[in-house]
Amino acid sequence: MGTIQIENVSFRYDQMVDNLFDSLNLKIDESWKLGLIGRNGRGKTTLMKLLLGQLDYQGQVVSNLNFYYYPQAVVDKNVPTIEVVKNLTHLEEYDLWKIEIELDKLKVDSGVLQQEFSTLSPGERTKVLLAILFIDESGFQLIDEPTNHLDIEGRKIVSDYLKSKKGFIVISHDKNFLNPVIDHVISINRADVDVYKGNFDTWQDNKNRQDNSEQNEKEQLKKDIHRLHETAVKRENWSNSAEAQKNKNRYGESVNLDKGFISHKSAKMMKKAKTAEKRVDSAINEKQSLLKNIEIEEPITLNYEELSHPDIFVQVDNLSLRHETITTPVVNFKVKKNQVLAVIGQNGIGKTTIFKQILGVPQPFEQIGDIKVANNLKISYLRQDNELTGEIKALAVDKKIEPEMVYSNLRKLGFERYLFNQPVENMSQGQRRKVALALSLSEKANLYFWDEPLNYLDVITRQQIISAIKKQHPTMLLIDHDQDLIDEVSTQKVKLHY
Ligand SMILES: Nc1ncnc2c1ncn2[C@@H]1O[C@H](COP(=O)(O)OP(=O)(O)OP(=O)(O)O)[C@@H](O)[C@H]1O
Ligand SMILES: [Mg+2]
């Protein structure tokens, strides 16, 4: 079996203070199914770009494999999907059956090949691009977050599909998706990068054990150093008083006695204490560098303003939206104070369209049924896409939010300070999502519309969001395909289906 060897690779983007990767060494077998995990901005996407040879780095990557990256850039989306396939694969007409086979495994009707690419649902697009990626079975696939925008069923299909393949790296923050698929983990930690044999759960168990034992060791060391300090102080006091005693008799009168042996002993004891302290100091330093891998989950807070009334914030009666051939399923629901309503349903069924209609965003849809929204509500809308551009400060001012508040929330979400002045479009996907999230957290609101908040976000941030909602019980309408989030925070669900 061939290998991919990453040898002494160092890299940083121009504006960075420190290296993103510093003398990185990894050895990967070409048959492994790897999950690449790590917090937002740690360099997962960058690592893939390094393997693809798209960035200038120090060190070397030794491999004779062909690497393929998802998501591919589709330059022209307004053409039949088959043209997109041809452009990206250079397949000849007589070889196009290969794509049909892959599409079949992904449970996509090959009829989509004749359909304009721009009209495919997000789930269909993902599957077509993945099918293209696996045309060359001998290649090594680099799959960057395929689950964003996929509904629960889509995630299951893609997960089964990947399980049947081998030799790839997939980035995902969704443990339920990763667990059945992968047999190895590459984890980009705070202080280092490691490769682990197992799936996400076994990696997590191992990490928790490691963190705990390091934490315990640190506690033990703290106790040791405290004890040593105390002993050292005692010894010092003793030797000082011995020194003072040297020239006095037992009545405290000054006399000229030679007590050289006391002086000698006290000096020896001081020296011993100092050596012991030094040893503990260096042990502590060593441990501290290990402890840098412990991820910290800081609590976050929504700037939620609870209202004593009205009781019903949003009421939707027999609502359906129509445009050309599309008609969304009829829905009915009420959102009361402190309720989290989860709107669920498959990709493309109209969840976001319903959100926008309630919010009064202009859309080319004819409305059937009624929408009532209580008056004078402050609403915070977290959109589905990473559409923000420009600097954080300007984005905050635009929404009449104190930039400092946004910065503070971003710090809690694990943002480094130097990023505050960077344009959002230069950031990693998760960092971009965090900017949108921090704006929504900072904005004073009585009601939240959160459309797929978890997309692109790392595991710790997901947990921060879940904890905040559970603690504050804000009034919220929520769309997400993450089962854990829905189960943990929703007080009621409405399912869209025909
Ligand atoms: N083109 C760029 N110019 C400058 N900095 C960049 C650029 N692309 C990425 N970065 C920075 O490099 C770091 C790593 O980015 P990368 O996209 O590799 O992270 P990631 O682990 O994939 O994160 P995510 O989970 O959010 O996708 C981030 O701090 C990001 O802001
Ligand atoms: Mg990324």
Automatic annotation (TrEMBL):
The keyword Methyltransferase does not apply. It comes from the Bacteria. SUPFAM superfamilies: P-loop containing nucleoside triphosphate hydrolases (SSF52540). Gene3D superfamilies: P-loop containing nucleotide triphosphate hydrolases. InterPro entries: AAA+_ATPase, ABC_transporter-like_ATP-bd, ABC_transporter-like_CS, ABCF_ATPase, P-loop_NTPase. Residues 266-293 form a coiled coil. One of its GO terms (molecular function) is ATP binding. The keyword Coiled coil applies. Keywords: ATP-binding, Coiled coil, Nucleotide-binding. Residues 4-215, 307-498 form the ABC transporter domain. NCBIfam families: ribo_prot_ABC_F. This is ABC transporter-like protein.
